[in-house]
Design goal:
This protein has helices at about 25-30, 65-70; strands at about 1-5, 15-20, 50-55, 80-85, 95-100. With about 110 residues, it is α+β, with helices and mostly antiparallel strands. The chain has one domain: Beta-grasp domain (Ubiquitin-like (UB roll)), CATH 3.10.20. The chain has a five-stranded mixed sheet.
Length: about 110
């Protein structure tokens, strides 16, 4: 099992465990983490699973593909460490991953 810490905009923390192979979004939704809306169900056609990846984990989450880049470009809350959690595949290397949610999902 891989542990992921989700931190709400308010600072409330949610520690979850998930199996490798799932997405970070699926880990959040499966564990009822508030702040991840996931309106498109992981199809990378919205930006309602937007997260900020803790800087020390950013390289390990992989590259942003053009579709994810297009969706993130629509977000007014985008930062250098923004990712769509549906596009981050959980691997053993992500054990301990920390992500923070923006105040609102658009």
């Amino acid at each position: 099992m891989v542990k992921i810490k989700f931190i709400e905009h308010s600072g409330q923390e949610h520690d979850v465990e998930t199996n490798p192979g799932a997405s970070v979004m699926i880990a959040a939704v499966s564990n009822s983490v508030p702040g991840i809306d996931a309106d498109c169900g992981g199809a990378c056609s919205c930006a309602t699973c937007h997260v900020y990846v803790d800087q020390e984990w950013l390289v390990k989450t992989g590259e942003i593909n053009p579709t994810e880049e297009a969706m993130l470009s629509l977000s007014t809350d985008r930062k250098d460490n923004s990712r769509l959690s549906c596009q981050i595949q959980v691997t053993e290397d992500l054990d301990g991953l920390v992500v923070t949610m923006p105040e609102f999902q658009f």
